[in-house]
Automatic annotation (TrEMBL):
It is found in: Membrane. The lineage of its organism: Bacteria, Pseudomonadati, Pseudomonadota, Alphaproteobacteria, Rhodobacterales. InterPro entries: Yip1_dom. The keyword Membrane applies. This is Yip1 domain protein. Pfam families: Yip1 (PF04893). It comes from Roseovarius litorisediminis. Keywords: Membrane, Transmembrane, Transmembrane helix. One of its GO terms (cellular component) is membrane. The keyword Nuclease does not apply. Residues 12-185 form the Yip1 domain.
Amino acid sequence: MTPPDFKALLVQSLLTPKDAARQLIAFNLSRRWLWMALALMTVLNAIVYSVSIRLSPPVAGTDGVAFVPLFHSPFLFTMLLFGALVITVFTLQWIGQRIGGKARLGDILVLLTWMQVLRLLLQIGVAVLMLLAPMLAVLLVLISSFWGIYILVNFVDAAHQFDSKLKSVGVIILAVFAIAVGMAIILTTIGLAVMGAS
């Protein structure tokens, strides 16, 4: 993919995400390559996140203090993020297929991997804005949160070839509950390990 192609796909993902999803799926990339790409994007996202959290560390006494060592450790955060993404890939495919969706595992995988590319670019932009204009950074995070949901709904809709976006919303909602259970188990396991090592 050339730089102009990358830029065009990036713009398309923001403006017409369903068309971008179809184009990504049409690449028909191998699962092995996609898993490696997802792992790489996870590492890069974790690195950028770790740098940004050091630029604006959490305030002591806020919720989640028990897991501060987790989020300050690039390795642990990478494992957490990758675990969440793996659970997301499988749950979005499995739940979607239960209600008539047609997505293959590779379809969901390529779309979530691309979303991590978008997330990486966003995190870099937010990190820069935090240094120059913190309020703009907060605004960007807020807008991108809603826009990210819009993109995900369209990606799921394109992958499963649903006849209604409401089905895609339903799949995402059910997947969130499944992911929450999986992440609770992972967080508990890692949290206990961190406390045991301290």
